[in-house]
Write a structure and sequence with these properties.
Pathway: Isoprenoid biosynthesis; isopentenyl diphosphate biosynthesis via DXP pathway; isopentenyl diphosphate from 1-deoxy-D-xylulose 5-phosphate: step 1/6. It contains 17 helices and eleven strands. With 395 residues, the protein is an alpha/beta fold. It folds into three domains: 147 residues, 3-Layer(aba) Sandwich (Rossmann fold); 132 residues, no CATH class; 72 residues, Rna Polymerase Sigma Factor, Chain: A. The radius of gyration is 20 Å and the shape is globular.
Length: 395
């Protein structure tokens, strides 16, 4: 029986993971659930899956959670220590940690899981973007297992030689092709993007996701973060990663080999597929997802990304080229920018402007510890908020 901690159980990834686990309760046991503040859903999840522990990061939500579970006579223990995430991620009774917390908040508990040698199913791409070298080093030193849940990276894993696992070198690989839907504004003009509203940006054509990742998809920053993630996951240089717009989101990514072969993983756009594969890797289990109907699909289209219209993707490649703390700065500035856009404090196009400003303003430095990473993250966030305040005063 595999015991599982889900960091971020009320988000899209967490909910989909629980749906897959529900189909295989003879194989998987939910040991702990954590979330930010969706008390009602978290209460429902505790009632159905009966984890040993649960924790809500929001203090008020955590107190309400205690009341809810007490009323249900639940045996689940509600933790209230600020270090609960790290403690659960490294708990001796935990086999597997699903890291599905959105943003930088997922870094420390995911590192705790890595340092404890856990099997990590990674959806929190920010861990690799912010601290890729440190995280990969921790995984190797503790003999942890790292399996990506992102549909694109999971697809790459599926078409790599399985004996080599997450390894680019000596596999006869020429390049990796990361597919992108293009988001809701793929056919919009640069002029039209000036007037985009949060409501419009949250209408993704193919995927149902949380607000932050949906906005990242609209700006194509999500694909930029995935390029950085792929470099660390597969030990591959950025020059050998190509982003391809594929509006149907049927091909989830491809690997081109030196003999001219290109292998792709296809499937309906449903996160239960990569989650099921990550849980059972290298075997396969039922996910609850219907098979792909090629006749109904009819066509698969591809095009190059427009970096002039979507500069965030280019900024991610720039961060990789600079190295050191640049990806950390990129991520922190983006998180602040997305939140500001959702609050309508900045425009859609100002998301990229803010990120580029921070990348140019924060001094490059090496990252030798998680504390240093968090210092850079904090410094960048303060700078980004100052930029927003300044632009709001002058507008």
């Amino acid at each position: 029986m595999e015991t599982i901690v889900i960091l971020g159980s009320t988000g899209s990834i967490g909910c989909n993971a629980l749906q897959v686990i529900k189909l295989h309760q003879d194989k998987y046991k939910v040991f702990a659930l954590t979330a930010n503040g969706n008390v009602d859903l978290l209460t429902e999840q505790c009632s159905e899956f009966e984890p040993q522990f649960v924790f809500a990061l929001n203090r008020e939500a955590n107190q309400q959670l205690k009341k809810n579970l007490l009323a249900l006579n639940s045996k689940t223990i509600v933790l209230d220590d600020e270090n609960s995430l790290d403690w659960l991620a490294s708990h001796k009774e935990t086999n597997t940690v699903i890291s599905a917390i959105v943003g930088a908040a997922g870094l420390k508990p995911t590192m705790a899981a890595a340092n404890s040698g856990k099997k990590i199913l990674l959806a929190n791409k920010e861990t690799l973007v912010m601290a890729g070298e440190l995280f990969v080093k921790a995984v190797k030193q503790s003999n942890a297992t790292l399996i990506p849940i992102d549909s694109e990276h999971n697809a790459i894993l599926q078409v790599l030689p399985q004996s080599k696992k997450l390894n680019y070198k000596s596999n006869g690989i020429r390049k990796i092709l990361l597919t992108a839907s293009g988001g809701p504004f793929r056919t919009s003009t640069k002029e039209e993007l000036k007037h985009v509203t949060p409501k419009e940006a949250l209408r993704h054509p193919n995927w149902i996701m949380g607000k932050k990742i949906t906005i990242d998809s609209a700006t194509m920053m999500n694909k930029g973060l995935e390029v950085i993630e792929a470099c660390w996951l597969f030990d591959i240089p950025a020059s050998d990663i190509e982003v391809v717009i594929h509006p149907q989101s049927i091909i989830h990514s491809l690997v081109e080999y030196v003999d001219g072969s290109t292998l792709a993983q296809l499937g309906n756009p449903d996160m239960r597929t990569p989650i099921a594969y990550a849980l059972s890797h290298p075997e396969r289990i039922e996910s609850g997802v219907l098979g792909l109907d090629l006749i109904k699909t009819k066509r698969l289209d591809f095009e190059a990304p427009d970096l002039d219209k979507f500069p965030c993707l280019g900024l991610a490649y720039k961060a990789l080229h600079i190295g050191k703390n640049a990806p950390t700065i990129l991520n922190a500035a983006n998180e602040v920018a997305v939140e500001a856009f959702l609050k309508e404090s900045i425009t859609f196009n100002q998301i990229a402007e803010l990120i580029e400003f921070c990348m140019d303003a924060v001094e490059p430095q090496s990252l030798d510890s998680i504390e240093t990473v968090l210092e850079v993250d904090s410094k960048t966030r303060h700078l980004a908020l100052s930029w927003i305040d300044c632009h709001n005063l002058t507008s």
